[in-house]
Structure formats: structure tokens, C-alpha cells
From TrEMBL:
Database matches in SUPFAM superfamilies: Cellulose-binding domain
Signal sequence interval, chain numbering: 1-17
Cofactor(s) needed: Cu(2+)
The keyword Zinc-finger is annotated on this UniProt entry: no
Pfam family membership, one: CBM_1
Full protein name: AA9 family lytic polysaccharide monooxygenase
Span of domain CBM1: 324-360
Record keyword Disulfide bond present: yes
GO molecular function (one): cellulose binding
Amino acid sequence: MFSKAVLASTLIAAVSAHQNFHQLWINDETPGYQAGIRMPPSNSPVVDVTSEDIACNVGGSKVPSGVDTIAANEGDTVKVQWDQSGHPGPITHMLFGPVDDASATTGVGSWFKIDELNYADGKWANEIMGADNMTHEFKLPAGLASGEYLLRSEMLALHSAQTVGGAQFYIGCAQLKITGTGSAGSCGPSIELPGAYKAEDENIYIPDVYNGFDPTTYSAPGGPVATCDGAGAGTAPVSGSSPASSSVVPSNNTLAVPSTFASVPASTVPAIPVSSTLVASISQGANASSAVSAPTTLATSIASSISSNSTAVAAPTGSAGNGSIANKYHQCGGKSWTGATSCETGSTCKVQNDYYSQCV
Ligand SMILES: *[C@@H]1O[C@H](CO)[C@@H](O)[C@H](O)[C@H]1NC(C)=O
Ligand SMILES: *[C@@H]1O[C@H](CO)[C@@H](O)[C@H](O)[C@H]1NC(C)=O
Ligand SMILES: *[C@@H]1O[C@H](CO)[C@@H](O)[C@H](O)[C@H]1NC(C)=O
Ligand SMILES: *[C@@H]1O[C@H](CO)[C@@H](O)[C@H](O)[C@H]1NC(C)=O
Ligand SMILES: *[C@@H]1O[C@H](CO)[C@@H](O)[C@H](O)[C@H]1NC(C)=O
């Protein structure tokens, strides 16, 4: 027993940089720690994007037993909580379904993305979550068909993305029984897992991740956030009938700057986030020699995001000039977003979360 305990604590120390999705809340109510979630055999990442493990983690097409399926309604707020993570990267959520029985579903097949959080206010999703007890919230879309679903939560760690196969996918799937108003197949686009991710996709293999890469341009794998045709008739609380009102960036969005560097003099601001992002990366064994070139890039992007507050309000909806109209499936709002806030004809700006609105 004693040796087992020693071994266990050694293992915990060795893998403490790894993480699992361990709890969820539906409208602030939780079924409990690990309830409703298919816990993988370990907290190690999946790195082979062509493996069936990329759907719902290790085990691939094997369906676990004894996992509860949690009730929810379309439009509900889902909160996920992960283990602590110092790995820079995005978080995304996808649904698989509707199916008759989520507990008997592998997750190998068609998914559609319902949420993503990449890089905002000079922080990756894992850091933004870290400031919120490792939680992240999003809404189940309106227009879902009633039925059971797998909810796939993915945290992608990019600290080794400079090599092919270096990106680490942390994945957890929950089982949900959703009551909705849509019809099956109304949400899209959908993607196949495995299949949709390729080892050399530009958001998975990033040769210059420590050497010139601009995180503000990053968008997570899996394509655009899906829309559901059935959403409408006023049932979608987040759909922007008025793109302007849902996407206007607050005029004093310096408040969105993380408190760690909001409180220091402006002249030193760019230096601070570099350490928070890079120290985490470097301590994960990343390439220290090339990492030294990263501060300039990060500092630049952060400095520009900080100085952006004057331009943030300068994009009124009506102005038709280029740069103020976002194309379909592109970003049109979110905290610290300074780009276009209007959408091209035929699409409207829809809030996905505090940090990301998209033309759909
Ligand atoms: C953070 O999450 C843990 C686990 O859910 C919880 O026990 C703890 O109370 C939370 N802390 C705060 C400050 O909310
Ligand atoms: C800035 O934002 C805060 C909270 O978001 C709000 O209370 C305050 O009135 C805002 N100030 C200005 C000048 O907009
Ligand atoms: C470290 O960076 C150098 C220069 O960019 C590169 O040649 C080398 O392959 C990198 N090493 C690792 C382990 O990524
Ligand atoms: C950002 O806005 C605040 C308040 O409006 C202002 O004091 C500050 O100088 C602005 N910063 C920049 C870089 O424009
Ligand atoms: C906007 O940009 C597109 C392509 O870059 C160009 O074809 C179009 O003429 C531009 N429109 C205006 C109003 O400048």
C-alpha cells in the first residue's frame, strides 16, 4: 500500500501538466464531479488526429458504461470545468446527434461546432479559464432537435505545435439529453472525426509558434461554429437581429485587459503578458532558444490590443467601407475585437460568447 501511494504521488507530479474535463453545469446546476462525463483512462493528450481517439479520447469507438446522461434544453447555458492548464491554446465545443441513446454512441462520425474561444485580450482560452477557476460558459444553440447528444469539449495545447504531431488534444465527452425545437440535421456545417483534422493543418502544426506567429489570427480546428436552421421565430436569445447591438465593443474596453497587467504603468505593459504566456510554455519544455524571439511578437499584439480602445468604437454599423464588413463565418465582435462589426449581406452577427461573435 505504501509503495502504491508513493507511486501514485510520483505519477501525479509527473502528469500534473495534463488535464481532463471533469465537471459540467447546466444553468448553474451540476450533476456532480465527473458526472455525465466519459472520463478517459488518463489525463494524457491525444496527438494522432487520424485516430478514433480524436472523437472522445482514448478508447476510440469503445463505449463506456455507467455514465449518466444529463438533461438540458436548447438555449441553456453550459459551464465546463477543466483541470488546471498552463498549455496555451483554444477551447472548442461540438455536438454529436441527435441519437436515441448517447450512452451507446461512440462519437466516431459527424459533429458540429457550437462554441469556440481562441485568443482574446492577450490571453489564450486556457489562461482566460484559469482566471475563472478553469471554467468556460457557452449556450446550447436554439434550433436543436430533441434527442440525446454527445457534447465534446476540446482543449488544444499548442506549446509543442512547432513540430508535426506535437499539438496535444485534451478531449472529454459528456452525454446530454436535449429538448429542442429543431429537426434532426438542421445544424451545420458538420465535420467528421476522425477525418476533419489533419496533422499539418495550419491551426494544428504551427512551425513559427515561438517565432513570429500572431495568436490574434488563430482559429481552432473544426471549421466555423454551426448554425441551426430551426433557430428563429424569436427563440434564439443570442441571435443578433441587430448586429450592432450584439457586437459593439464597449468604449472603455481597457477594463477587459487582464488585471495582471492592467494595474501597471502603460509603458511597461507589454512586458508582463510575455512572461505569463511564455513562462508557462517554456516551463513545459518548449524550445527556449527560439522562445526568446517571441516576446516582440506577443508584446506587439498585446500592445496593439491595448491601444485599440480608441479604434474599438470607430466601426459604426452603417459605414460601408472595407474593413467594417465581415464575411460569413468570420468574427464580427467580442471583447477586445477591433475589426468589422457588421456582416456581409445575407448574414447576421451572432454572439457565441463574451469573446467571440460570428457572422452566420
Ligand atoms: C473552483 O472549483 C472548485 C471545483 O468545482 C470548487 O470546489 C471551488 O469552490 C471553486 N472555487 C471558486 C473560487 O469558485
Ligand atoms: C466602463 O465599464 C464599466 C463596467 O463595464 C461601466 O460601469 C462604466 O460606466 C464604463 N465607463 C464608461 C466611460 O463607459
Ligand atoms: C528549436 O528551435 C530551433 C530554431 O527555430 C529549431 O531549429 C529546432 O528544431 C527547435 N527544436 C525543437 C525541439 O523544437
Ligand atoms: C483607452 O481609453 C481610456 C479611457 O477612455 C483612456 O484613458 C486611455 O488613454 C485609452 N488608451 C489608449 C491607448 O488609447
Ligand atoms: C472591398 O474590397 C473588395 C476586395 O478586396 C473590393 O472588390 C471592393 O471593391 C471593395 N469595396 C469598397 C467599397 O472599397
